[in-house]
Request: fold
Amino acid sequence: MQNVKVLIVDDEPNIRDLLSTSLRFAGFSVHAVKNGAEAVYAAEKGEPDIILLDVMLPDMNGFSVTKKIRSMGINAPVLFLTARDETEDKITGLTVGGDDYMTKPFSLDEIIARIHAILRRTKTAEVEESVIDAGEIKINQDAHEVFVNGELVDLSPTEYKLLRFLISNPNRVLTKAQILDHVWEYDFNGEMGIVESYVSYLRKKLDPMTAEPVITTKRGVGYMYKTAKNGK
Amino acid sequence: MQNVKVLIVDDEPNIRDLLSTSLRFAGFSVHAVKNGAEAVYAAEKGEPDIILLDVMLPDMNGFSVTKKIRSMGINAPVLFLTARDETEDKITGLTVGGDDYMTKPFSLDEIIARIHAILRRTKTAEVEESVIDAGEIKINQDAHEVFVNGELVDLSPTEYKLLRFLISNPNRVLTKAQILDHVWEYDFNGEMGIVESYVSYLRKKLDPMTAEPVITTKRGVGYMYKTAKNGK
DNA sequence: AGCATCATTCAGACTATTCTCAGGAAACCT
DNA sequence: AGGTTTCCTGAGAATAGTCTGAATGATGCT
Reply:
């Protein structure tokens, strides 16, 4: 994945910052704007590979923006961001043509995974495979399936997201705060103990099937997923 | 299927967008215009392999367009789009010479299937087979027949479309929103619960005849049709 | 007209999942 | 070792997601 350009369109400064920062950190080239007019302009100038578009904007709604952009010959796929309570009536047709949508509040890891999925489908850029291969453990992201030494393991959605986050940052300690910020929705305001709980769940399911424990605790720091052998 | 050129003729921008986007994503080369005059011009210049033609156009009706185009020696098959309440006599005679028609509102999956069917019949391009073979289940698209281990299963139209959509995206989780967007008509604005209902219907009919359940639920994500071969 | 099939909604049963909490285990320190 | 901190994990309550049968109306067929 090299130099994938993301255009973020959202009127809430908090969301804009949150997305900008974390997508930039994830290796994307980011440009963020706050309304439809700016979005149209930026889409034309910047030629983004993908657009993150809030459906509810002050000047025009996300669909008008899409229409305008598409009519200008820009075919970048769109990942719509919608509030959870406006899903049922307004979301028809959102998943057409490689586009997709996410409800707010979302988790950062999930949104990055979605972006990758869309880029993979639309092939607008060089993107990694849909299968994450980390030695004993393989994650098929299309099927949302996890295999440990070839055997399918049944994980809950949160377990799945946590494992995916750990595995995509191998051999690197992640603090509980980082994990919470990336795996859980951004408005989650519970305790960090939940990370401990979920690590425990994961270990209970994974460890019986692996040679060595897969998640190691760095006391006072956080957790780390360690790849079995050769690091790459 | 490579580089099949589709010409879309419809005066409603929404329909044009919807069709353009999803056909382009389905691998077609798309050109969309908004009236009869443009259609004639585009048909001559673009040499489309198939034309999607709204019968009701602002300047001239679809039949005049067809006549004109054909008189110019362009024999691309036409898939007419008509409103559901259009009178019967207007529609008769539409399906001669490889042509066909669909009533609005249509489902995206269905229109793509129709295009493939027409191309198959007229052999204007390389198109995939009419039989979808997915292990235990085979779908004969020409006959609209589904066989499970060689035995014919009777499905309702919607059941058929749902199964076809699931099977043509094997080993990939499809969200209820995706299913709704592709299988149901584009103006459907009911609840996603209907997908659950139809999955239930399908299972009730299919599962008794298969070794393992064919549709797996990914709780919190969607549904997946899984082919027999291992999850590599 | 009468019957059969189909599409859609809905509610209740059911199950998986999320999250918190608290006691005990393990690691770390002096 | 003893004390302190951090982590692990089982239990339980609340919640969210899913399945299914039944009711309703629409559509189509004979």
